[in-house]
């Protein structure tokens, strides 16, 4: 195979990679509560990610829905916690929840519209930052409806699998042409 064909394949794969850039999806869960974050970035390497969407996919207490679907909004505390929201990932776990605004608590808060329910990430009970905890609070002074250890994990993107398959097909085609 000549250099021109190899450089053409390399250029096509580069275009495929650049076209495959997409947002990163993260699953979250604690207790019976579960959902997803969608952030910028296309692979879960260590770094800071801006949260673009939040959704609830399973709940014993709150409505299923998302920010983009209009069932939830970002923030609480009379606008002292504001968007944008960020999560910091060390390659295996969230190490910080960050937001703009005046409030010093490192919590991300998602309020259910038409309800007092609020999801808190980086919080369990009391006014304490707890990175690996989350809670669903009903807006009263009572204990949260649900609280517990938070699990957050990156979801492999279908685009990544498509890119891998395209690369394998290209290598196979090159090998077949060489042997012919």
UniProtKB/TrEMBL annotation:
A Pfam family assignment: PEP-CTERM
Record's keyword annotation contains Signal: yes
Keyword Signal annotated: yes
The entry's keywords: Signal
Ice-binding protein C-terminal domain segment(s): 154-178
Source species: Roseateles toxinivorans
Protein name (record): Putative secreted protein with PEP-CTERM sorting signal/MYXO-CTERM domain-containing protein
Database matches in InterPro entries: Ice-binding_C (IPR013424)
Region forming the signal peptide: 1-22
């Amino acid at each position: 195979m000549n250099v021109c064909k190899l450089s053409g394949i390399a250029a096509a794969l580069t275009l495929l990679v650049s076209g495959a850039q997409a947002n990163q999806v993260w699953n979250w869960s604690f207790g019976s509560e579960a959902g997803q974050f969608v952030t910028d970035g296309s692979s879960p390497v260590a770094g800071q990610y801006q949260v673009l969407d939040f959704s609830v996919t399973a709940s014993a207490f709150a409505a299923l829905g998302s920010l983009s679907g209009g069932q939830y909004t970002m923030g609480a505390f009379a606008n002292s916690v504001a968007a944008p929201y960020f999560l910091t990932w060390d390659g295996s776990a969230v190490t910080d929840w960050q937001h703009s605004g005046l409030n010093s608590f490192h919590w991300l808060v998602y309020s259910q519209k038409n309800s007092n329910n609020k999801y808190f990430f980086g919080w369990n009970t009391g006014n304490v930052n707890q990175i690996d905890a989350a809670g669903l609070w009903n807006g009263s002074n009572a204990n949260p409806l649900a609280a517990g250890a938070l699990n957050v994990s990156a979801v492999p993107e279908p685009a990544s699998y498509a890119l891998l398959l395209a690369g394998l097909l290209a290598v196979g085609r090159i090998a077949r042409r060489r042997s012919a």
